[in-house]
Task: inverse folding
């Protein structure tokens, strides 16, 4: 993977520079919640304006679904924090999935994609929902045929990739667009840079709770506030077991039963509801969930323990989480090729 700094398209005519910095903490191995490094871009999928524009069109195009009703933007909409506010996804024919959509904001920083980490790259993630029978319900083969039958798309693919549309090119184009959906400097980032008044006093106290009594940084570490790992919080556990086995479905490793990927926390105030099943509607409810120590089960992560936070500590922690919201590119739905 080659790290480069690139500019991403924001509103028409404007550019947003990705932030630099970040790194390992003094303790070694643990990533501090500092300024983010440049986005990593695969050597075989460099960013270009034309590719980003093509990816943007594909992202908003409902023709990628079997019945032309669902696009990537249906479940990951700009107006709802690049996620949606339903507990779980709804796909073609009104089918309801079992997992929360999550946000694509800063997904370029994630070590893996989806709640169970089944996609190692944004490119692999981008085409996954197309073939999911509950989501877009199409086949990649048929989508390729559809796109190559549209003269505008066929010309764009040839211009960008030198070939007709293909599953590989579709994934690369959408991933290139998604790599531009990066949150800008939040009050927390400005505070780190020395603007002491950027965060209210309550958020500064909340930062201490986050890194101390709240044990939040044990998993929500690194500049994106995610260790990229998988943890069992007990979400969805009942007497009969887990409704969703999570990472275990990918690895069959006992340690992964009921474990899900740690989401990033930047702009988290905009991306409710929370947890992989959307079961917690507000950040206040999430804080209470963690304060209880999650849901006891035989595979509960050892880091999940009752916190005994006070009312004030909870309020301060909420204030800090709200301070992680930064501006994101203002994207309008593009005109699609015919």
Result:
């Amino acid at each position: 993977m080659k790290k480069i700094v690139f500019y991403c398209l924001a509103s028409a005519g404007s550019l947003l520079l990705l932030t630099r910095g970040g790194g390992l903490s003094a303790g070694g191995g643990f990533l501090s919640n500092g300024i983010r490094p440049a986005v990593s871009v695969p050597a075989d999928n460099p960013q270009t304006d034309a590719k980003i524009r093509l990816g943007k069109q594909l992202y908003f195009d409902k023709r990628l679904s079997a019945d032309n009703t669902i696009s990537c933007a249906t479940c990951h909409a700009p107006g709802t924090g690049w996620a949606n506010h339903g507990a779980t996804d709804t796909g073609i024919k009104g089918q309801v999935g079992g997992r929360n959509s999550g946000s694509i904001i800063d997904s370029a920083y994630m070590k893996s994609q989806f709640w169970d980490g089944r996609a190692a790259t944004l490119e692999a993630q981008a085409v996954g929902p197309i073939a999911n029978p509950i989501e877009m319900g199409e086949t990649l083969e048929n989508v390729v045929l559809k796109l190559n039958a549209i003269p505008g798309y066929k010309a764009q693919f040839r211009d960008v990739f030198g070939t007709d549309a293909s599953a590989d090119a579709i994934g690369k184009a959408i991933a290139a667009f998604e790599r531009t959906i990066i949150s800008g400097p939040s009050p927390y980032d400005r505070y780190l840079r020395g603007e002491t008044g950027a965060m209210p006093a309550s958020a500064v106290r909340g930062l201490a709770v986050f890194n101390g009594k709240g044990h939040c940084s044990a998993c929500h570490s690194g500049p994106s506030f995610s260790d990229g790992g998988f943890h069992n919080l007990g979400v969805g556990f009942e007497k009969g077991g887990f409704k969703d086995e999570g990472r275990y479905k990918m690895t069959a490793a006992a340690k992964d039963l009921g474990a899900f990927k740690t989401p990033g926390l930047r702009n988290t105030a905009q991306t409710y509801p929370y947890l992989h099943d959307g079961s917690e509607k507000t950040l206040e409810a999430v804080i209470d969930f963690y304060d209880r120590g999650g849901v006891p089960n035989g595979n509960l992560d050892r880091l999940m323990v009752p916190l005994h936070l006070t009312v004030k500590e909870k309020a301060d922690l909420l204030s800090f989480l709200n301070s992680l919201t930064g501006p994101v590119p203002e994207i309008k739905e593009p005109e699609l090729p015919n």
